[in-house]
Amino acid sequence: MPLNPVIESWQGRCAWIVGASSGIGRATAAALHARGARVAVSSRNEAALQQFALEHAGSLALPLDVTDHASVTAAAGRLRDTWGTPDLVFACAGHYRPMRATEYSLPEMRRHLDINYLGTLHVLDVTLPPLLAAGRGHLSLMGSVAGYRGLPQALAYGPTKAALNNLAEVMYFDLHDRGLGVSIVNPGFVDTPLTAQNPFRMPALMTPVQAADAIVRGWQAGQFEIHFPRRFTLGLKTLQSAWHGLYFAAVRRATGL
User: H helices of 135-229, where?
Assistant: First the structure.
């Protein structure tokens, strides 16, 4: 049974992808454009956004910095003035640096928090009021399987994704009966500039195009949690409720870390 309103057609719908200059965000914007959506793309990389707009006729480039509330507010205003209230908002901007507790860096911890979590809150601040007023639309947050439980190398990254999973669940309680869809996207390993930093073998690695297809299909089907690839994520979900001793042993065996 779908937990969100099913989306039968993207034709003419307005989608705002925040974090669309590369990787999953860019591929998702392209997938929605191919299905007939009007796509607005945002990130700090204005050149990449303009290139996307050139390659995808009718799309809208809205440069912003998610850590700067005024910047996000200005981009939302441009979107509202051009297309009105969006039908879909995907808060996809993210930052990742592998880190272990033996290499603790407070500035890097704060950078993850500012981009991954507070950046998402800035996007919600400018999109929730108009969506609530309209009584329709869909809010989707970019999580990660690193948010399920603690993982090696994810000292800074994992907690921000755990927070977004919790945030999405609370938002679902509050917004579902108001006509809004809410979803959390929890990918496994996807071949992006962020994961290219990983010094270990990444099992079940997907391309951004494959990830985007899974995300769009999840939104269409009304899913709350969109996780992929399932041959990898289902195993991690099983370990979510495992005794800590078993969990630590299984992760160490699998990663060698």
Answer: 157-175, 208-221
- Say how far apart CA 56 and CA 211 lie, in whole Å: 19
Closest CA to 188 of 123, 254, 107: 254
**157 noted as active-site residue:** yes
Say how many C-beta atoms besides its own lie within 10 A of residue 160's C-beta: 26
At residue 130's C-alpha, the angle toward residues 86 and 215, to 5°, is 40
Catalytic residue among 117, 148, 157, 172: 157
Residue 79 in contact with residue 39, Cβ under 8 Å? no
pLDDT averaged per 10 residues, the chain (length 257): 94 97 95 98 97 97 98 98 98 93 97 98 98 97 93 93 98 97 90 66 77 96 94 81 84 77
Q: For each of the domains in the chain, give its residue range(s) and CATH number, in order of start.
A: 14-232 (3.40.50.720)
